[in-house]
Amino acid sequence: MEKVVIVGSGCAGLTAAIYAARANLSPLVLEGSHPGGQLATTTLVENFPGFPEGIDGPQLVMNMHAQAEKFGARFSYSEVCGYEPADGHIRLLVDDEWIETESLIVASGASARWLGLENEEKLIGHGLTSCATCDGAFYRNVPVCVVGGGDSAAEEALFLTRFASKVYLIHRRDRLRASKIMADRVAACPSIEPIWNTVVTQYVPDEKGEMKAVQLRDLQTQQERLLPVACVFVAIGHDPNTKAFQGKLETDPDGYLLVRHLAESKHPGVFIAGDVADRVYKQAITAAGSGCAAAIEAERYLSELGK
Ligand code: NAP
How many CB atoms are closer than 10 A to CB 78? Predict the structure, then answer.
């Protein structure tokens, strides 16, 4: 029987792990298939307090991981596929084995959204990606495009200017949703060309199945045109990762887990942290804060039970 299992190893899960480990609970962190969460695929993080020069996202999560491990957190790359409350504890289906735990912190984060166009799955990795940090360097001196208008799209576009000959930023409205500082940087960057009021209607692969262009529709004129690009970077937001908990833990209509008070769920022993429950702030620092709250709540829960 575990005392605390933490599902997810992004900022929320790792902060929960640091706190739970320092409380001598020896938490087991199930990292899943995307260790480090969204920070692991981002670039410079400039708004995490304590780093006036900024810090690389992957470095930040590696530091948190080392910090949690130092205090006794244990890590496994396993994926949670099922959850059920049992008699006074919790059962989790992990890969193909059930494990039992007194308490659970769900910090499973959120995953990138895709456009839902034809051939999308086939093209992922062949000129279609949601991660500029991972794949940007493969597209040197060729035109690429980013789809989206939020901070992620702005950040990806700016990052891609290091490699690509031209970065088209395709957004369905006439202004960015991104924060002013990011929008100003995009506007000041000569190698980014925004394409406003426009959506991608089709991916166009070459005969080898690699992306060679996108079909665009101008939403004001309804005119369609072909834009040659070697890679499409989709940055249109995220969906919460709740598959293992569906129908078991309460969600809002968009699938975000519902939290009663800070990190507490309705279910005894189940606590929730980070982007899996956050449709508003979605920041590394708020995820870390809620991870801390979840671990403190789990610790209190266990000590009230005398565990
Ligand atoms: P977001 O803020 O939700 O923006 C998503 C963008 O994609 C919006 O511009 C949206 O258009 C567009 N979009 C959504 N669905 C679309 C579709 N089907 N087709 C075309 N466009 C679509 O998501 P995000 O940029 O990933 O950011 C998420 C959160 O993380 C935000 O709170 C952001 O501030 C934060 N973040 C911060 C930083 C930073 O501070 N450096 C970096 C990355 C992310 P509309 O504008 O029309 O809705």
Answer: 19
